[in-house]
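Backbone-to-sequence.
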């Protein structure tokens, strides 16, 4: 029964997305070569952009002209498959193909392998499968989507790596304030926008960033803690104090994950004041160290180094308290430096388009 509901939901989404295509997307399956039509029908009935035999047949047997028609099909799934195929053929101008189809906002289900199904806009799927001749060409695409197509998930995922240029500011602020719906990883996208917005260090943006993070404490990831660490502001201390202790220990004890708690520790340690000292001291001096039976060794070491590497008057008492532990860690690390793997010999990409989206 659960599988039937999943198929039904995908079908409903597909039907809805089919209604959002551009008026120029008018080719029906009956408009294609009869030998190709059975495979097109199978793909559409499957409702997922994937790696099945019918998709493979289309990618290898459809002519360039048929792929162009598929790129203007009334079915979003066929458009997505066509764009993927065209991006693999040297007979198409890939840069122009991507730049001319950024407005394809129909949402399709895509096969993400072990990760299940991802729902993406056709244009986002196209960009994820795209390649560029050089960084400059890719940057033109990034500029275009941030400035003129900032609703795309691809725009959000490029935000962490861009410089805070004034030309981007209004678009990024709009992205941060826009409510994301029906898209995979929508909270992470908003986090990226907030991170990019924070890099401008404009005081008028602090209350909005703070309010959003406070209202999503249970969802905060590394990006939020990096934001508060690299763009520090004392107003953010309210976020740390509300996150700790409940959500700090919850992730450790429920999922035995320590990455986010480590991010929390490294982030708050740079504030070097009485409020950050109080939280760090509370973590350090809790007895037992955790309220659950989880290995604490790596977390405790992270805490010791974070305090030691942020010397300040506020941490002077903590530094004395942890000095013996710090020296012990240092001695152990010198005796057991761990394995140093030689970097693998990288095979140089000699293709005409070596630059990928990720």
């Amino acid at each position: 029964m659960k599988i039937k509901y999943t198929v039904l939901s995908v079908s409903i989404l597909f039907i809805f997305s089919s209604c959002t295509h551009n008026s120029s997307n008018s080719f029906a399956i009956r408009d294609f070569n009869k030998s190709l039509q059975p495979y097109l029908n199978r793909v559409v009935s499957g409702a997922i952009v994937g790696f099945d035999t019918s998709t493979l047949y289309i990618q290898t047997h459809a002519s360039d002209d048929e792929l162009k028609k598929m790129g203007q099909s009334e079915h979003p799934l066929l458009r997505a498959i066509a764009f993927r195929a065209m991006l693999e053929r040297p007979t198409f101008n890939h840069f122009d193909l991507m730049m001319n189809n950024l407005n394809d906002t129909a949402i399709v289900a895509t096969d993400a392998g072990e990760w299940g199904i991802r729902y993406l806009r056709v244009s986002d799927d196209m960009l994820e499968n795209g390649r560029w001749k050089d960084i400059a060409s890719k940057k033109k695409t990034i500029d275009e989507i941030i400035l003129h197509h900032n609703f795309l998930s691809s725009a959000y995922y490029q935000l962490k790596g861009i410089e805070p240029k004034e030309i981007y500011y209004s678009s990024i602020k709009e992205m941060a304030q826009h409510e994301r719906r029906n898209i995979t990883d929508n909270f992470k996208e908003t986090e990226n926008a907030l991170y990019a917005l924070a890099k401008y260090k404009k005081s008028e943006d602090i209350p909005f960033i703070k309010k959003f993070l406070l209202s999503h404490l249970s969802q905060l990831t590394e990006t939020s803690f990096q934001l508060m660490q690299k763009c520090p502001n004392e107003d953010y201390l309210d976020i740390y104090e509300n996150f700790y202790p409940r959500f700090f220990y919850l992730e450790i004890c429920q999922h035995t994950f320590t990455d986010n708690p480590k991010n929390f520790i490294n982030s708050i340690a740079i504030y070097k004041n009485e409020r950050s000292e109080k939280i760090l001291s509370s973590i350090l001096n809790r007895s037992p160290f955790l309220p659950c039976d989880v290995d604490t060794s790596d977390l405790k070491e992270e805490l010791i180094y974070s305090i030691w590497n942020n010397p300040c008057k506020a941490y002077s008492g903590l530094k004395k308290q942890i000095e013996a532990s710090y020296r012990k860690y240092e001695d152990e690390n010198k005796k057991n430096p761990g394995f140093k793997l030689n970097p693998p010999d990288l095979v140089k990409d000699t293709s005409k388009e070596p630059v990928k989206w990720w």
